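Q: What would this chain look like folded?
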Amino acid sequence: MSPSVLRWLCLVAVIWLQSINGTNLSFPAYSSQLKQSLSISQIKLNYLAFASDAGKLLGFISGIAAVPLPLRLVLIAGGSLGFAGYGLQYLIIVKKMFSPSFPAIWVLSFLAGNSICWINTTCYTVAINNFPANRQVAVGITASYQGLSGKIYTDIVNAFFSASPSDSTAGYLVLNALVPLIVCGVTAFVIADAELGASSDAKIGFVVMFIVTTATGVYAVVTSLVPAPEILVLTGIVLLLLAPLAIPLGFQLEEIMFTRKNHQKVHDEEFSPRSVRVRVGEETVKGEGEEAFCNAVGVKEEIKWTELWKKIDFWIYFSVYLCGPTVGLVFLNNLGQIAESRGCTATASLVALSSSSGFFGRLLPSLLEYFFSRSKHMPSSPASMAVSLAFMASAFFVLLVESDMALYASTAAIGVSTGVVTSLAVTTTAELFGTKNFGVNHNIVVANIPLGSFAFGWLAANVYREGASGGSDGECEGMHCFETTLFVWALLCSLAAVLAAVLHGRNRRFYSLDKS
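A: My prediction, written as structure tokens:
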């Protein structure tokens, strides 16, 4: 198999991995039943949501491991950790094989959350190494599929498990344990040969990929809002996930039709750090050594992870992520309780809607980057973050309106905004701090997720508990249950938008040179 075909096959494998890696996104769909099964308070339920995010505190270990170890081992490690975390939870909570100890469930949730980091590290490394000149596009397309995870798991549960809350909870735990491990095992054979260099001509492949990805997102949104037979919905998702295989198969067929000479000329251009040739549109960048590499792929400077704390840009960027997408993720963790407190029973539909919206949010930066990257009017990644975060803050203010329409519209808006910033964050880390230590650097950045999850989730749980003083069994009903929390979250997102604008101002010269 030629490097060109293998490069695209790797990208398809990454799409499959990302589509099943967002196991934590299905938590809102069964959190209420989990709370009842374990007989725990809203505070302790928040601690479980925090545990999954806390696993990211040790996510940098996966980045360190990815340097000396083959990526296939990093990938298998991620699948195995998730299998252990969710599998043992299933045995404890559903099968009652062990006494349901809250500390044990917390540790297992931590383990399951950490597994996501190992798979993400593999996916990001493959996308960046294979498409250095189009890394935002490659990372954005593949990462967008992680936003579909909640939708995919919900569709499978609806199709194969009964509608009772206890059976649904069992279904989510079984799927979260088995599906990532199986997909990791299947794709490990392709991921093993990941570092193939730059793509000589990615235009056709990415255009087809955008068409397939957009169709997948539209299908996901429509089937989240319009009732349809569960098996039919799931079949459509599976076919759309298989559709990207048409790209490597098409390149393979093209190579068979052409002579070996034409094949070598068109498809075998190699990338070397010592002699860089990266095509960007019709321009070819040449250079020697590390400086040429930085210029070719738009890197400000290469920074070791041990030096990050000395950079002002890092702390501004860290704060942007803490007060922005992390708040969005905490909102999604509490979506089940928010919906129930407002009298909305369609929690599964809201989870599917937020998942589908996050899909489009993650995809949007890639679309803009691919078609307008050379435009002088294309905003920098930090500037785009600022706009998205301002939009998210507005959505939180809209949530203060008591109506189902406001709930659905705001959930979709927060899903889109969180997806946009999450996708932009990957390329921003590479732009500001380099690609050589990306795996470790980005895992350090996202380590703020558990910090925000604990602090902002604790706020939500305490406000909820205070509002439940007059309710039964500690349940809170009414807008007041989350009103203060939503207002604080809106202010945090507004602060994040301001900080993102500051980060853009500090790096305006770098981004202007990158487009020249």
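The two ends are 37 Å apart (CA to CA).
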